[in-house]
Write a structure and sequence with these properties.
Mean pLDDT of chain A: 87
Largest sheet of chain A: 6 strands, parallel
CATH architecture of the largest domain in chain A: 3-Layer(aba) Sandwich
Number of domains of chain A: 2
Strand content of chain A: 5-15%
Order of helices and strands of chain A: EHEEHEHEHEHHHHHH
Oligomer: homodimer
Number of helices of chain A: 10
Largest interface: A-B, 43 and 43 residues
Helix content of chain A: 40-55%
Number of strands of chain A: 6
Chain lengths: 216, 216
DNA sequence: GCTTCAATACCCTGTTCTGGGTAGTTTGTC
DNA sequence: GACAAACTACCCAGAACAGGGTATTGAAGC
C-alpha cells in the first residue's frame, strides 16, 4: 500500500489546472482523505491504474479533451471494479450525467460548488450512498423500470407471444413446433404474423425488439 | 374532470386514521393541491381507480393489511400508468422501499416527517424528480448497472465485435459485407468464430447473449 | 527467424428462414 | 346464431444461414 490503511485515497482527473488544484487541496485538507495522484488526461489515469494500487474514489471530469470521461469510465470499470467514480460536470441536468450513471459512475459533482459540498459528496459515496439530485434519480428510475416492466403493445396474440418467447430462447421453427405440438408450417405462419406486427423482417430484429422493449 | 385543471389531485392510501387525516390536511392546505379521495384499504383504491379519473399522485402506505402497497402498485401501473406513486414507509432503509421502486414507485416519504418535508416530496415529484436519499439511490444504481454491465469477456477481436454490433442492428451477412467492404464469405467466417466464442449456434442466440450480457 | 494470431477469402452441402399466397376450424362475443 | 379473431395447416420459390473444411497475408511477440 502506498498510504496507511486509514487514509481514503482519491484521485482527480481534470484538465483545468485551477479546479484540479482546488480539488486536491480540499481533499488533502480533510484528516482522513488524501489525493495521492491527479491527472489532466484520462489516458494517464489508465496508465497509472495499471501500475499503482487503485484508489477508493476517482473524481473524473465528464468533458475531457482526448479520451472522454465516459470512455475512461469503462476502462476503470474493467481495470478496478471496486473504485467508485464521481463525475465532474458543469451542468447538473446533462444527458452526459445520466449516460455516466449508466456506464457505472456512482454520482456526480457540479463544478463551482462550495468546499463543503465537494466533501459532502465524497462522504456520501464513502458512506455507501450515491450523490445525485431528484431529477437525475427520476431518470435513472424511469430507465430502470423500463427493464422491470413492459411498455409497448403490439397486440400479439397469446400464441404469438408464446412463440416470441421461444424465439428469444433460441428455438428453431422446427423445435418450436415440437415444443408446442404444432406443425412447423403453423409456426412459420405465426412467425410471419409476429414480423408483421413488430414491423421487422428477420428473427434477429424480432429478438432485439423483444429484448429492448421488454416484450417478453 | 372532478376538479378544475389547476388543482393537482393527490390520493392517500393509509390504514392509520390519524396519519391519513394529517396527510389530507397538509395536502388541502396547499393552494394548488387537493386530496379528493383517501382510502384505508388498497382494494378500495383499485375500485375507485376503475371509476374515477385518476389523480396525479398517490401516497401509498407500504405496509397495508390485506393487499400490500407493492401489490397495489402493480394494479396502479396497469390501470393508470401516468399516476406517480409515493410510498409511505416507517424505515427509510427498508428493502421494501427498494422493492417498491423496482415495481414502479417514483419515491418515498418517511412517516413522521414534518409538514414541510411532506409537501417538499410531493413538489419534487410534480417537478419531475424522484424523492429518495443517497443510499437508496445507490441501491437503485447498483441494481441498474447490473442490468447494464455484467461484463463477461469472450475475447472477441475488434472485427468480431464490430460484426456482432451490426448483427444486433439486424444486418444480414451480405449487408455487413457491404457496410464493412468485405467479402460476404469473410463475414461468414467471422460469424462462425463469434458463434464458437459465445458458445451459440445461431444469430438469434448470439443476439440474445449480446444484449443480455451487454457485449455491445 | 520462428511462432502465433487476426483478418481476409474461398469451397461445399444441407438446413432454415422469409414472404407471397390460400383455407379450414375453434373460440369468444354480441 | 352470426361474425370476427385467433389458430391451425399447407404450397412454393428464392434467399440466407450453419458448419465442416482450407489457405494466404501481415503484424506482434519471443
Amino acid at each position: 500500500m502506498d498510504q496507511p490503511e486509514k487514509f481514503k485515497d482519491i484521485w482527480v482527473v481534470e484538465d483545468n489546472h485551477e479546479l484540479r488544484h482546488t480539488l486536491e487541496e480540499v481533499i488533502d485538507s480533510e484528516p482522513d482523505l488524501i489525493c495521492s495522484m491527479s491527472f489532466r488526461r484520462c489516458e494517464d489515469l489508465i496508465t497509472a491504474l495499471q501500475k499503482e494500487s487503485p484508489p477508493q474514489i476517482i473524481l473524473m471530469d465528464i468533458g475531457l479533451p482526448g479520451m472522454s470521461g465516459i470512455e475512461g469510465l469503462h476502462h476503470i470499470r474493467s481495470l478496478s471494479p471496486a473504485t467508485q467514480v464521481i463525475m465532474l460536470t458543469i451542468y447538473e441536468d446533462d444527458d452526459k450525467v445520466f449516460e455516466s450513471l449508466c456506464a457505472g459512475a456512482i454520482g456526480y459533482l457540479v463544478k463551482g460548488q462550495t468546499t463543503l459540498k465537494i466533501v459532502e459528496s465524497i462522504r456520501v459515496v464513502l458512506d455507501g450512498g450515491a450523490p445525485m439530485n431528484a431529477r437525475i434519480a427520476r431518470k435513472v428510475l424511469t430507465m430502470f423500470s423500463r427493464f422491470v416492466s413492459p411498455q409497448a403493445d403490439y397486440a400479439l396474440t397469446r400464441r404469438e407471444q408464446e412463440i416470441l418467447e421461444l424465439l428469444v430462447q433460441g428455438y428453431s421453427q422446427k423445435q418450436m413446433a415440437a415444443q408446442l405440438n404444432l406443425s412447423p408450417l403453423t409456426v412459420a405462419t405465426h412467425m410471419k404474423n409476429i414480423y408483421a406486427k413488430l414491423h421487422v423482417h428477420s428473427r434477429t430484429e424480432a429478438v432485439v425488439k423483444a429484448l429492448r422493449e421488454r416484450l417478453i
